[in-house]
Amino acid sequence: MPERNYLFYDFTVSICSECLRKVEAKIIIQDNKVFMIKRCLIHGPEKVLIATDVDYYKMTRDYLKPPSSPLRFNTEIKYGCPYDCGLCPDHQQHSCLTVIEITDRCNLTCPTCYAESSPTHGRHRSVEEVEKMFDIMVANEGEPDVVQISGGEPTLHPDFFRILDIAKTKPFRHLMVNTNGIRIAKDEEFVKKLASYMPAFEIYLQFDSFEAQTLKKLRGEDLRHVRQKALDHLNKYDLSTTLVVTLQKDLNVHEIGKIIQFALKQRCVRGVTLQPTQSAGRLENFNPATDRMTLTEVRQAIIDQSGIFTGNDILPVPCNSDALAMGYALKLAGQVFPLTRYINPRDLLEDEKNTIVYEKDPEMHQKIINVFDTGKCGEAIPKTLQALLCCLPKIKAPQLKYDNIFRVIIMQFIDKYNFDVRVAKKSCVHIVHKDGRVIPFDTMNLFYRDDKEDYLKKLQSEIVLTR
Question: Which one in 24, 28, 33, 275 has a CA-CA gap of 20 to 30 Å to 357?
């Protein structure tokens, strides 16, 4: 019998990129790449590239671990994933990182924006609304791991510092502010006040490119001077910062290594997060057929360009191994030591929670140094080293501080093209909707923002009619 020209690897449920209705899908391996093939009864077949590295894609299955549930769920199972987000009891992961959007307004109108923010879009949330969002997360998580204040541009909110004050009274383990850096660049006193919220506080700074033309395509204007001035202020106060890069193929991928090397030289920068553009929201200079990137393409670019990380250093994150990858390094005595290669992957799968509080093991810093003293990669690594692989490590020991940690994270949000219900159910980056539901960031941008819910209700009514 004749053989097909591909290997059938898996079966899942996806959505049609045209009508967003659920469709069956198969995952195949062909020409050393991984594809999703799906067929909508109305709009026909689609073939979507999922991964360019077959071995890494298969390896993500080795990083599966028992899911961690929130303390409570907020919506019932009624229509099936992804139409019940809230979180419903069928969701398989608690909130490792929760986004709280305190405003829809922004001082930019970026051609690429998930939230479609602008100076005239939407409104500021009231302080009472924001505190209610905080309390929802406390009820869901007990002690939320990471809470990110976002927008729009959150620094525009008239009660911004009042909101931070309230956040600091809540049992959040780590607090972030997601910003384009404009106010940070213009107002040093503002930065000085931000620094007073440390420790367990971090700036998530938009940093896409060193090239004017690229910034104009992504952000609408040349922001190079703004980024540098913002970093000057952040460095002055050593305010912990992550550089966040929105990636588009043939636009800024060639700069990944340069950005990582630049970040390593900044006193305040603790790492770089790389986010391939999700096909959602406002996308004026984005062609899904040519500009979408897979996680494995980003991973390979890090390996090829960084001069630091190898294939053994960029590993799947167990809470959602298909969508998250990370590598850690130590900055010691002016040198950079890749660290993730020394971790036994099995150790990542044994902890009950997906984010590990670093300071639970006060002897860990010495164990890290011992690893580098021995230099024996084959030697058994102490279990306590699993504590290194949390999304936001924090060390209180004087010999080794948070300043010594440098991390690179790839965060891929699935969209209407590569949507996989198996991946969606494991999403651990969530956003609190203005009505109180807690929604995975992936599906929020596809179904639950503004007028998108009108179409979602249409899909839900169709499901009811077919039962």
Answer: 275
